[in-house]
Design brief:
This is Transcriptional regulator. The protein is of the alpha+beta class and 429 residues long. It has helices spanning 17-27, 33-39, 42-53, 68-77, 84-90, 118-124, 137-140, 144-151, 200-222, 262-273, 280-287, 294-308, 327-336, 340-345, 358-378, 381-388, 397-406, 412-428, and strands spanning 63-64, 101-106, 111-116, 133-134, 155-158, 171-178, 185-193, 235-237, 245-249, 255-259, 313-314, 319-320, 325-326.
């Protein structure tokens, strides 16, 4: 759980009365975002807002995740499993009698291992801080490991900075762990306890251990270990307002991001959605059904090969020669798994919003409308509100009607929905 006012172990000094008051006002809907941001560290204020928007219950701990044989298989096959002896030697062995817990989580927030002081472990069971529990921010609210994973950044959360009341007696420090070969997020290393684990010294200790863990993973990779690390596939990032990027891992294991032109991003998106390949004529039509000729397409493909590598794209037909990952596929994968919240987490915005390609425009509409339909079908007011707060959803009349009809009469959410619908009606007048 995190930095500055942590999550986890047990703080005996008790939560800050002033911060507790802010928390009570916020969860009751009696203060706005500007008040919250003036009362808390910005990283905590934003996390509280995300937690509330995702429907996290401020009176409960984390939700259970894999258990029994399923958890055992998850742990045995996880890339961090070989590093557990090192973590025990650097952190756990000195934790007995200290009131401190050491936790290792997967990238999705599932706690894989929770070890350390036996008395602290028994107390932590009361908030479900146990192996197999889901401590992602979307499940447990603001906490160091979950929020560190959400932000992909080291973090400390102190006492009452936690969104959930049952976690507020604790403080934590968490540092994300990455695959040194690809930069992929593997999980987080967390120290949970009293106020002492929210200090700069605790952060330095966890940070140093994380460096040692990633160094061991790099060594395992170099020595040909059979441990399966995150795949080294190239990645195409094309969602949202940021410039599209092509991400690859170099020979030194460093993740490199190369900005793409709009046309090159269009081409890679279309090739990723047509694994069978596309002829130059077909690709020209998909990119621009009026003014693009085959000569221009061939020239663009020649330039694109210089960016992504000559061994990535074949000709006659044009097709990808290597398996890649895309942020588009991430959203669809979450939807196919029935996890609408995860799909929203993976959707920073529409597909290549500046693209004029008719085929890309169709794919953009398909993705946005598929996500919208899943949100409306979920019947979850918190998930619906996240959609309505996004640029794609802010003018979604059906969505605002669903929020109005699905929230308590007289609630702030219902009043906001009524007001938004009135504004939309005025726009149409």
């Amino acid at each position: 759980m995190g930095r500055s006012r942590s999550s986890g172990g047990g703080s005996r000094s008790g939560p800050s009365a002033a911060l507790r008051t802010v928390h009570e006002l916020f969860v009751a809907g009696e203060v706005d975002a500007s008040y919250l941001e003036s009362s808390l560290r910005p990283v905590v204020a934003k996390s509280w807002q995300r937690s509330l928007a995702k429907g996290v219950d401020p009176d409960s701990g984390a939700q259970p995740s894999p258990v029994g044989e399923q958890l055992a298989r998850f742990r045995d096959t996880h890339p961090l499993a070989p590093t557990l002896p090192l973590i025990r030697r650097l952190l756990v062995d000195d934790a007995a009698g200290s009131g401190v817990l050491v936790a290792v989580s997967a990238a999705d927030g599932t706690l894989l291992w929770v070890e350390g002081d036996p008395s602290a472990r028994r107390r932590a069971e009361g908030m479900n801080f146990v192996p197999g529990a889901d401590w992602s921010e979307r499940s447990a609210g603001t906490n160091a490991p979950g929020t560190a994973l959400a932000l992909n950044a080291e973090l400390q959360i102190h006492g009452t900075e936690h969104f959930s009341r049952v976690v507020q007696p604790w403080s934590c420090t968490a540092v994300p762990l990455h695959d040194p070969s690809t930069g992929a997020l593997l999980g987080a290393l967390d120290l949970t306890g009293g106020p002492e684990v929210g200090t700069p010294q605790a952060l330095a200790l966890v940070r140093a251990t994380a460096v040692a863990v990633e160094s061991q993973l790099a060594l395992l990779h170099l020595t040909g270990s059979t441990v399966e690390l995150a795949p080294r596939r190239p990645r195409l990032a094309v969602l949202g307002s940021e410039r599209p990027r092509w991400l690859v891992t170099d020979e030194y294991g460093h993740l490199r991001a190369t900005p793409l032109t709009g046309r090159h991003a269009d081409i890679l998106v279309l090739l990723s959605r047509h694994p069978e390949g596309l002829s130059a004529d077909h690709l020209a039509m998909l990119l621009d059904d009026k003014d693009l000729d085959v000569v221009t397409v061939r020239a663009e493909m020649s330039r694109l090969r210089k960016v992504v590598g000559a061994d990535v794209i074949a000709s006659r037909p044009y097709r990808l020669l290597v398996a890649i990952t895309t942020d588009i596929a991430d959203v669809y994968d979450a939807l196919e798994a029935g996890d609408v919240t995860a799909a929203l987490d993976r959707y920073p915005g529409p597909l290549l919003p500046q693209s004029m390609s008719p085929a890309v425009a169709r794919l953009r509409t398909e993705l946005t409308m598929t996500l919208r339909s899943a949100v409306l079908a979920a019947g979850n007011p918190a998930v619906l509100r996240r959609w309505l707060d996004s640029p794609d959803g802010r003018d979604d009349r059906d969505g605002w009607r669903a929020l109005r009809d699905g929230t308590l009469p007289g609630s702030v959410a219902q009043a906001q929905a009524r007001g938004r619908l009135a504004g939309l009606d005025l726009d149409l007048a």
